[in-house]
Amino acid sequence: MRIYTKTGDGGQTSVIGGRVRKDDARVEAYGTIDELNSFVGQASALLQDDRFKDLREQLSVIGQELFDCGSDLAYTPAAQQPYKTHAAMTERLELWIDRLEADNPPLERFILPGGSPPAAALHVCRTVCRRAERRVVALTDEAEINPEVLRYLNRLSDYFFSAARTANLILRVDDVEYVRGARVFSGDKDRQNEQEQGE
């Protein structure tokens, strides 16, 4: 089987239900999710130590689910295919986040990406995830999509934030605090994800 088909040489690509330009908002959205999945694979490769077994297993599940998200976004209305991304996937992310945050140290300041190489890689995942979310939001102005994809991505960036802090905790490396700002968190676990400014 040949990897190249030459069918995209004119700047178009196939989606489920037709063909579109390669800069179409739909392609941009699921392409950014594909980019995110590559960074998830990179982060997982940095978590080979047995101490990261749980995180590694979670990232393996996330990789599969991101492919589901991309697949859902590749459907045009004409395709009429059943969606793969569902609410239970987001609920599982919330469970994982709660478990991670139960052990993570309280936040007092905003933190910067870094600390240890695994944590830095997970912060890259977080920021690319936020960009993927923005691309999906932009797509909703043009097309109907599975709304569970947007919910999943919104929660996933929070997961990467918590996972990055857990990676530093496991390695006994401090998070990198933003020292030019005041202490903005009370240490209340319920408010820690305000770092993400997520909703």
Automatic annotation (TrEMBL):
Its EC number is 2.5.1.17. Keywords: ATP-binding, Cobalamin biosynthesis, Nucleotide-binding, Transferase. InterPro entries: CblAdoTrfase-like, CblAdoTrfase-like_sf, PduO-typ. The keyword ATP-binding applies. Residues 3-167 form the Cobalamin adenosyltransferase-like domain. Pathway: Cofactor biosynthesis; adenosylcobalamin biosynthesis; adenosylcobalamin from cob(II)yrinate a,c-diamide: step 2/7. It comes from the Bacteria. Pfam families: Cob_adeno_trans. It catalyses: 2 cob(II)alamin + reduced [electron-transfer flavoprotein] + 2 ATP = 2 adenosylcob(III)alamin + 2 triphosphate + oxidized [electron-transfer flavoprotein] + 3 H(+); 2 cob(II)yrinate a,c diamide + reduced [electron-transfer flavoprotein] + 2 ATP = 2 adenosylcob(III)yrinate a,c-diamide + 2 triphosphate + oxidized [electron-transfer flavoprotein] + 3 H(+). GO terms for molecular function: corrinoid adenosyltransferase activity. NCBIfam families: PduO_Nterm. Belongs to the Cob(I)alamin adenosyltransferase family. This is Corrinoid adenosyltransferase. It comes from Saccharibacillus alkalitolerans.
